[in-house]
Automatic annotation (TrEMBL):
<dbReference type="Pfam" id="PF03737">
    <property type="entry name" value="RraA-like"/>
</dbReference>
<keyword id="KW-0479">Metal-binding</keyword>
<feature type="binding site">
    <location>
        <position position="123"/>
    </location>
    <ligand>
        <name>substrate</name>
    </ligand>
</feature>
<dbReference type="GO" id="GO:0046872">
    <property type="term" value="F:metal ion binding"/>
</dbReference>
<dbReference type="InterPro" id="IPR005493">
    <property type="entry name" value="RraA/RraA-like"/>
</dbReference>
<keyword id="KW-0460">Magnesium</keyword>
<feature type="binding site">
    <location>
        <position position="124"/>
    </location>
    <ligand>
        <name>Mg(2+)</name>
    </ligand>
</feature>
<protein>
    <recommendedName>
        <fullName>Putative 4-hydroxy-4-methyl-2-oxoglutarate aldolase</fullName>
    </recommendedName>
</protein>
<dbReference type="InterPro" id="IPR036704">
    <property type="entry name" value="RraA/RraA-like_sf"/>
</dbReference>
<feature type="binding site">
    <location>
        <begin position="101"/>
        <end position="104"/>
    </location>
    <ligand>
        <name>substrate</name>
    </ligand>
</feature>
């Protein structure tokens, strides 16, 4: 037999990005961030904005690891929120009920959270939107979760196919949620200007009438393309 785990494991002190590091990612489109990380970094497509009109967010992750059907760690995370935090609630992808509703998200907003992200559904859509807290989830389901534990707060979890650790930078907009690992913050920030310049240049060419990217004839001369007609 094994020992019963504690109801909660909490890490109150974890590395957090500086104000200057966070500023480098403010108002940056999620697509630019993925380009700066070799085309990766986004959570699964199922994790989508609760409302397309809600504000984009950027902030440090505060991860609450719940089990399926659980909300205990998310409730505990309310005591640890620092202004600007993005609460990440993992339920191991469970889709059978709600991971949070308007009362929980209302308390997150009162505590200064910038947003909420979960790999499960939410409920009380109208009430959640009224709180003004930007949320990303997999959909809506009115079933209730349980608050029994065990769970952990301040560590990490796999959410939407990606490892998310407390202290990582979360950027989320109408296109989805992107995780910038804490160890890569400065590296990724350093690539953003180059990514933006390349995107701006291509956008200008498209607006000027550009119709394609590949020169198929030239590639054929190099043996990279074969025309069978």
């Amino acid at each position: 037999m094994i020992e019963e785990p504690p109801l909660l494991r909490i890490r109150r002190k974890f590395p957090r990005p500086s104000a200057a590091q966070l500023a480098a990612f403010k108002a940056v489109p999620t697509g630019f961030l993925c380009d700066a990380m070799n085309g990766k970094g986004a959570l699964a497509t199922a994790i989508a904005p609760l409302d397309l009109a809600q504000p984009a967010i950027c902030g440090p992750a505060l991860v609450a690891q719940n089990g399926p059907e659980e909300i205990f760690a998310t409730i505990a995370a309310l005591n640890l929120i620092q202004p600007g935090d993005v609460v990440i609630a993992s339920v191991d992808g469970w889709q059978g009920g709600s991971c949070a509703g308007d009362q929980i998200t209302g308390m997150m907003k009162n505590a200064g959270a910038a947003g909420f992200v979960t790999d499960g559904p939410m409920r009380d859509r109208e009430g959640v939107l009224a709180t003004g807290l930007s949320c990303w989830c997999t959909g809506l389901n009115p079933n209730s979760p349980y608050g029994k534990g065990p769970g952990s707060v301040g560590y990490g979890a796999v959410v939407g196919g990606a490892q998310v650790n407390s202290g990582d930078i979360i950027v989320a907009d109408e296109n989805g949620v992107v995780v910038v690992p804490f160890a890569r913050i400065d590296e990724v920030a350093g690539k953003l200007a180059e990514v933006k310049a390349a995107e701006d240049a291509l956008e200008a060419e498209v607006k000027a009438g550009k119709k394609s990217i590949l020169d198929l004839e030239e590639m054929a001369k190099e043996g990279k393309v074969v025309f069978d007609d």
